[in-house]
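USER: For my understanding, would you kindly supply a protein sequence with its structure tokens?

ASSISTANT:
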Amino acid sequence: MRKLRDNLLTLILLAMPTVGSSQTLALRTNLLYDVILVPNVGAEVGLGDRTSLVGNVMFNWIGLRDKQFYWRILSGDVELRYWPGADKNTFLRKGHHLGVYGAFYRYDIELGTKDGQMGDFNYGGGISYGYSAILNRSLSLDISLGIGYMGGKYKKYKYFDGRYVWQSDEHRNFVGPTKAEVTLVWHWNLPKRKNDGTAKKGGQP
């Protein structure tokens, strides 16, 4: 499991390369996680005319012992996407896409109910479908849903008499929706247009 986690982290880092003149790179944040106070950031890089690689990470590690509140989440995923019928002028900004993804999850969640769950390392993967729509020249909105598998060991615990008491070791085997995104995407290195209608990367003359 540790080897799988290390491989996923490596892939996420590879999804955020140094941008060259021939690469298309977009930065992302999933608004669904932002709403529930889980900061996240991602990047998507074009690999060819119709394929791209996405990497996302999210992290929130809040713990309030006396309030019995733990909202600790560390997660990352990588996804290889195929854009059928992609147009070079709107690649990564507009159109349908299909993908295959893998992910890891670590969490400790207890929301004042005296019952909590803690997973040291869970994992998952699946297939996805989504659509991107252009908001303006630099921004787009990407909506996608993934269906697949999530598994791994976790502990159940209970808050009792000022202490957290272990209850049982469990193993999760879930098949169904494992990924949902309403993502704001910033296309920061788009070609800048010149007055004669041509375009140059990075605003070079």
The longest helix spans residues 2-14.
